Amino acid sequence: MRTYIMSRALMDKPWQEAMARSLAVSSARLRDLLDSQGMPASNGTLLFRYVRHAQASKIAEALARQGILIRLFPHHPAVRFGLPGDEAQWQRLRLALGSALVQNLKTSF
Q1: Could you tell me which residues are beta bridge partners of residue 71?
Q2: What residues contact residue 46 under an 8 Å CB cut-off, 6+ apart?
Q3: Pick from 1, 33, 64, 105: most CB atoms within 10 A?
């Protein structure tokens, strides 16, 4: 079944183009959300944003306590935010990033 689905996706140029546009919009939205919440400049791909931060492990822990899981790179230190899957997840991420605990961590180096 997977092979069939993948072969259909690889042959479906309109779907690929629409998905590329959708991912670009979502990626820009994630970058803008992180920027608006005071996170340092990020980089990444269309699927995620990578943020270096001295408090990365504490930010990941604070978000995890709110049900938001992000990838932690403890040796760098940095975190990676994936694209939320739907509007409710976008709002949960926005609210979690705006919480007082996370705000304090983002501004303290």
Answers
A1: 80
A2: 20, 23, 24, 26, 27
A3: 105
SS3 state of residue 70: coil
User: Residue 16 corresponds to which tokens in the numbers above?
Assistant: 């690929």
Mind listing the pLDDT tens digit for each residue in 24-59? 999 999 999 999 998 988 899 999 999 999 999 999
Token pair listed for 37: 């919440």
* pLDDT value of position 109: 47
Length of the chain: 109
* Residue owning tokens 């979502």: 26
Indicate if the alpha-carbon torsion angle 52, 60, 29, 16 is positive or negative: positive
CA dist 22 and 20 (Å) reads 5
Does residue 2 carry a pLDDT above 50? yes
